[in-house]
Structures are given as C-alpha cells and as structure tokens.
Amino acid sequence: MPMTSTRPPATVTVRGLTKSYADRQVLRGIDLDIPAGSVLALLGPNGAGKTTTVQILSSLVAADSGTARLAGHDLTREPDAVRGLIGVTGQFAAVDNLLSAEENLMLMADLHHLPRHEGRRRTAGLLDRFDLAEAARRPAATYSGGMRRKLDLAMTLVGDPRVIFLDEPTTGLDPRSRRTMWEIIRSLVADDGVTVLLTTQYLEEADRLADRVAVLDGGRIVAEGTAEELKRLVPGGHIALRFTDAAALDLAAACFPDPRRDDGELTLQIPSDGTVPTLRAVLDLLDGAGVTPAALSQHSPDLDDVFLTLTGHRRQETHR
Amino acid sequence: MSSVGHAARDSVTLFRRNLKRAIRYPSVVITIVLMPVLFLLLFTYAFGGALGAGIGAPGSGSGSPGDGTYIDYVAPGIILMTVATGCVGSALSVCMDVTEGIVNRFRTLPISRASFLTGHVLGNLVQTILGTAAVTAVALAVGFRPNATPVEWLAALGLLSFLALALAWLSAGMGLAAKTVESASNLPMPITFLPFLGSAVVPTESMPSWLRRFAEHQPFTPLNETLRGLLTGTGIGHDGWVSLAWCTGIGLTGYLWARARFRRSTHP
C-alpha cells in the first residue's frame, strides 16, 4: 500500500563537498547530481567517505566547504526545510527497542506533528506494507535483524520524505531479507516517487538498484555513470580455464596469443566477448591441441572489475 | 512556525516516550529506591543506636538507641540521597539513545533541538520524584516522625524537585560525554555519595577538620540542613538561600554544558 505523496519529487545537487576530521581529510570535493525520482548508488570501500557524505547531506554533520541543495533548499541556510524533506536510514537500525513497532511509528507521527488519526492511518499502512502487522505490538528488541531494518525504514517513511538516504541498507542482513529490502527500495522509487541516495559496498546491490553509480574512493568520486557505462570502462570479460597439471596448462597456453596464466592455480584466462562463437573457437583450439580443461567458466565484467580497475585495490570484503 | 509551541510539543512527545521506556525497563527506578532504602535500614537498625548516641540526636537529650530519634536526624539525608541517586537515570537514558543511534533519527527530524534533552530530563525528574516519595514512605513506616506543616512539606517537595531538575541536566551532560552506557552509569556516582560527605549521617562538627572544611562548603550540606529544618523543625538559617543558589548554579551549568555538548556535532 504505497503512500501517494502530494509533494513533488526532489532533486539533489551537491558541489565541492569537503570534510576533515583532525588531520584526516575524509571528503576531498564531492559533486553529485541526483535527478528527482531516481536512485544514485554511492559505491566504495570502508573508509571511502560514504557515511560522512550521508551524515552531511542529512544535516547531522556540517561540511567544511561546498554546497548542497535538496529540492531547491540550501542545506546550510535552511536546515529545517531540508529536514522536513528527508528521511535517513543508517547502518544500524535506529529504532526504540523498548517500544513496539506500532509505538515507534506513532512516535514518529507525533514528532512530525501529524494529527492523531493521520498518524494512526500511516502507521497501519506502513505496518501492512512492511509485513510487520503481526509483530506490531511486540517490543522491537524481540525482532530479527531484517524486521528491525524494515521497521527502521518504515519509521523513515512516516514523514513522507521526498529524499531518502540509505546508508548501507542491507549490510548484515541474510540473503532473503536483503532481497525483501531491495524490493522495498524499488517500490519507494516506483510507487512513492522518492529520490534515493544509497551507499553500499556491494556491487551487486548498486547494479540492481541504482539508475546511476558513483564510485567513491579516498574521499573523491573516481567514476560516475550508469552501471553499463562503468562496465564499459574496464577490459572485457574472459573465459577462465583450469587444468589438472602443468603440462596441460603449457599445451593450452601455446594455443592463444596473449593468455593470462596463473601457474600456481593452473588456470588460464582468455579474453572473450562472451559470445557463443568465441567460446566455440576457444574449445576448438583446445581440441586441436589435444587438451581438455578440468573446468571452464565464463566471466563477464561486473562492477567488481570496475571497482578494482578504478581504485587500484580490492574491496575489504570478498564478494558474496 | 510557532517554535516555542513546537518545542513544547516535541518535548512532551519525547517525555512520554521516556516514561513508557521507564515503565518497561523499571530497573533504574528500582535501583533509585532500593539503595537509599538499604542505607535507611542500615542506619536505623544497625548503626542507629551508636550513631544516635554519638551525636546526641536532636529532639532528645541523650539520643539513646531505639527511641526513634536518630532516624529523624538521618531520614532527610537519605531522602536527599535518593534525589542524588535518581539523576543517574538521566545520564543512562541519554547515553542509551546516543549509543543505540536513535538520537541521529531525532536529529534529522524537523523538531526543536532542545526537545531531545528536555524529554529525558523531564522523564528523569518524574522518576526521581516518585522514587523519593517511595523512600519517604519507607522512612515514615520505619519510624521517621517529621513535624512539618503542609506548607513545609510543599516547600520540601519544591526544593527536592528543583535539585532533581538541576542534577538531571548535569547528568544529561554526563550521558552525552560518556562513551558507553557503563561509564554513563558511573559518571554521576560521586554525586550519589556527596550527601554522606556532608551532614546527612553525622553533623559536620564531628568530622576531622580537613573533611569538615569540605563538608561545610559542598552543596549537599546546606541542602540537608534546609530539608531537615523543613521536615523536623531544626534551624535553617541562611542555608535555604544557599541551597537555592547551589541548585540554580548546578542546573544552569548542567543545562548549558549539556546543550553545548549536544550541539557540538550537530549542524548549525
């Protein structure tokens, strides 16, 4: 049950945002443009400055320099107008553990100065939409991680925000809860017309949810574009072959002009455009040399490759 | 936007939330009541005889054990201690909100900046007053016989509420300064024991001179003398005004400190 908003969608424009803590420069000039009703994923490793960006844009922390406008309101000059437009869901569910879901939502309604009946209406609608109606009267302390995150997001929605900041919305969730969360985020954009800035270190998440992806590394945006555009920035895909012994690896390697070989792993990577004729050609060459790989896999470029190419280092966490 | 109206409304909303939390998680109130009651029983039944005899308890020439007079001396001190203990709740509830991250949710709402702390302070105030009433009831049950008039009772309530409010603000600042909930419960501890280093248990005249100097110049001694005077009719002198001055000073310092701490990391 989407809450159709009467307020127009909002754009977010950020220019030259910088922030230092003590002698550590966390943000070195961030520019962002998020069109109304779209999702921008801010992708980066731990310590890249994702959370700081969200904290600044959600009026929790003051930037050292730079400007941000949300739906035309200047963040520094009109913080309360901005607060009236935004919703924030942080990395850790900010719910009151001693209150039930219903009470948490009503608390938000009261803090948004909604009339009692309107507060009740929105609470009931959100409990229903987020599948929390059954647990609505239990204290939030008894909820699972996924339920708490849903309640957290529901609390964010009570005020009918036009811009939502989601700081690592699925970190620590099990795969099923993660999928539920993705569906909810998609519906925010599709049904509510909300503008979303989401941070993530999961490339899959950015790929699936975002209209545009900005890669943040060391406090700078190192690339920005659609997921497809970013994927084009990196060398193409490849076919990975694994062999049982070094002799077979040698024989196979001799078939290709420029293979990338790993003698320890006994693997060979052959550049590929991912099409069937290329695959067939590779297999024909191997047949001709009389070697059969123990395993074969096709690898198309994903945002992981983009990330590795652009930032020159691996993410701290391995890809799930 | 009528900002005063909104600030009041938001404070009341958060105050109601904190009361709801206190009912669900009553261990703070129980601690507030339990400790002073234990001390009360200890001082009345275990040490009361010796202490009463030692100080020549007021209201009796001899202060002989068991005649119920030492309790008249110590009960106001124990009641005061309840107020001093009660303020821990403010540091705890503020710090819990900060460490659990819900404070950031409140900060990103278009609500008045002060309402978060005001809600906690008022919630703590109500808990402390209820706790103090409970301890007073126990004191009456075990033999405390005040001779206060209704006006004096009201004055005592007013004084204790003022102190509780002042300490709640100071404690709220401590809750913001603390990094963990454990340290938030420890920081206000010295306040809890200050009454003992005053005239709560024995008159300051009986103390060694160095301790006596401290005891006579710390806030809880004039507060104790004022409360004892209001409830049992001993002399108050200028201690009443000194007490009010201390409460004003503590409250103002606590309020300004807590507010500054809360604003420090917030957007201007």
Task: Give the topology, please.
The complex is a heterodimer of chains A (320) and B (268).
Chain A lengths: L11 E10 L2 E11 L4 E5 L6 H8 L7 E6 L2 E2 L4 H5 L2 E4 L11 H11 L4 H14 L15 H13 L5 E5 L7 H18 L2 E6 L2 H7 L2 E6 L2 E6 L1 H6 L4 E6 L3 H8 L6 E3 L4 E6 L3 H14 L5 E5 L3 H9 L9
Parallel strand pairs in A: 3-8, 3-9, 6-7, 7-8
Antiparallel strand pairs in A: 1-2, 1-4, 4-5, 9-10, 11-13, 11-14, 12-13
Chain B lengths: L2 H22 L2 H20 L1 H8 L14 H17 L1 H12 L2 H6 L7 H27 L8 H28 L3 H6 L2 H5 L15 H9 L2 H13 L6 H26 L4
Describe the structure.
- The complex is a heterodimer of chains A (320) and B (268).
- With 320 residues, chain A is an alpha/beta fold.
- Chain A folds into 2 domains: 12-232, Rossmann fold (3-Layer(aba) Sandwich); 237-300, Alpha-Beta Plaits, CATH 3.30.70.
- Helix content of chain A is 35%, strand content 25%.
- Chain A has 11 helices and 14 strands.
- Chain A has helices at residues 50-57, 79-83, 101-111, 116-129, 145-157, 175-192, 203-209, 227-232, 246-253, 276-289, 303-311, and strands at 12-21, 24-34, 39-43, 65-70, 73-74, 86-89, 163-167, 195-200, 212-217, 220-225, 237-242, 260-262, 267-272, 295-299.
- Chain A has a 6-stranded mixed beta sheet, sandwiched between helices. Chain A has a 4-stranded antiparallel beta sheet with strand order 2-1-4-5. Chain A has a 4-stranded antiparallel beta sheet with strand order 12-13-11-14, covered by helices on one side.
- In chain A, a hairpin with a 2-residue loop joins strand 9 and strand 10 (220-225).
- In chain A, helix 3 crosses helix 4 (116-129) and helix 3 (101-111) runs parallel beside helix 5 (145-157).
- The model of chain B is unreliable at 58-67 (pLDDT under 50).
- Chain B is elongated.
- Chain B contains 13 helices and no strands.
- Chain B is mainly alpha-helical.
- The two termini of chain B are 19 Å apart.
- In chain B, helix 4 packs across helix 12 (220-232).
- Chain B has one domain.
- Classes of the chains: A alpha/beta (320), B mainly alpha (268).
- The A-B interface holds A 58-62, 75-76, 79-81, 83-84, 86-88, 90, 92-99, 103, 107-108, 110-113, 139, 155, 159 and B 6, 9-10, 13-14, 17, 20-21, 24-25, 100-102, 104-111, 265-268.
